[in-house]
Amino acid sequence: MVARTGLYAVLAANVAVVLYFFFAAGFASNTLIVLGRLTGLFGALLMAFQLLLVARLPWLDRRIGMDRLTSWHRWTGFSVLWALLAHAVFITFGYAESSSLDPVNQLIDLAETVEGVLRAVVALGIIIVIGVVSARFARRRLAYETWHFIHLYTYVAVVLAFTHQVAVGTSFTSSSAATAYWYAVWGVALASVFVGRLVLPLWRNWRHQFRVSAVVPESDNVVSVYITGRDLDKLPARAGQFFLWRFLTKDRWWQANPFSLSAAPDGNQLRLTAKAAGDGSAALRHMKVGTRVFAEGPYGAFTALHRTRPEAVLIAGGVGVTPIRALLEELHGHAVVIYRVASDRDAVLYGELVELAHAKGAELHLVTGPVTPDKLAPAELRRLVPDITDRDVFLCGPPPMMNAVIGSLRELGVPKQQVHFERFSLAG
Fold first, then answer.
1. Which whole number is the average pLDDT over 137-149?
2. Which end of the chain is less packed: N or C, by CB atoms within 10 Å?
3. Whole-angstrom Cα distance, residue 326 to residue 353?
4. Which CATH superfamily is domain 209-299 in?
């Protein structure tokens, strides 16, 4: 909550600074041009903020979680698109109002005669394409790797937009203080991405030298992969977090798969457990011992860092048990574990859960059966955990199951700050 409030406060403070420099620069006589300049400034600020959200800075990620940061990044991206479209329309129509040209020819004239405008047009075109492929109807039809490659052009758009702002931005050039401010905004945003997405992963992988040490089938379609390396006790990983794993084989080195840790880090090895849901996860079963691994992370806020109560409820569905099992190993205080699966044979890692629950004095409930009737409805949860409103609840599983349980917890009156989950569509 503190990190989220701090992030909002930083954004609000920057909005105030942008408005100050905007008013200090003075107004044009044309209202449309004034609106165009203002929307352009807010578009630039949102673009920088958007970069910060996906920089994967450890301090933010541990406290807010990649799922929420990614969601905010998505909606900020659409805000950037609309702000820059408004900027282009207002500016073009504003100048057209003062000349004898129609809006289309006015835009062409600006691109040909004003330094930096052509770069801005290209940047806007890139952002429109990225916005279209990021819409849900298109995103569902694209492979992740294709979408990600297209998305990388965002950085080209950022550079083009920044050079446009340097060349013709009235607020940017109105004073040395405004110039210094905008250089600082873009510098912090780009440096955050450079450090979080490139420098930190490269440094950690060079330091730890990750390798596959064992591959253990857990069932017909689930496998655990053990990872060793150097100085793993210095790796700031916690139970409940995940990594983006890239196994450096000739046919898989280019593909990164997000998998949660299925055991609490012990300083000697890491373990991931995955269900064969696609080519990447299915190939893990055939991974050779000694294979080099490039791991990005740890990521996620699904950890004991956010506990508010001494006792907890851990609710897992299907392969979502992996971070839950790791959390049970790390948590102190009494815990109740509820594991929801279709049948006993789907209960991956159940033997380990039994042993851990016995060692830690936790209660373990295996809930089996079809989806309906809902066996995690409010009455059932109250029966299994009578004092559930006095506990932290950690939840991980398939999206439909998670949505249903969150609704049940809300109906039971469990305070929102006691419910902890991440949408593991990327990290499950």
1. 78
2. N
3. 10
4. Translation factors (2.40.30.10)
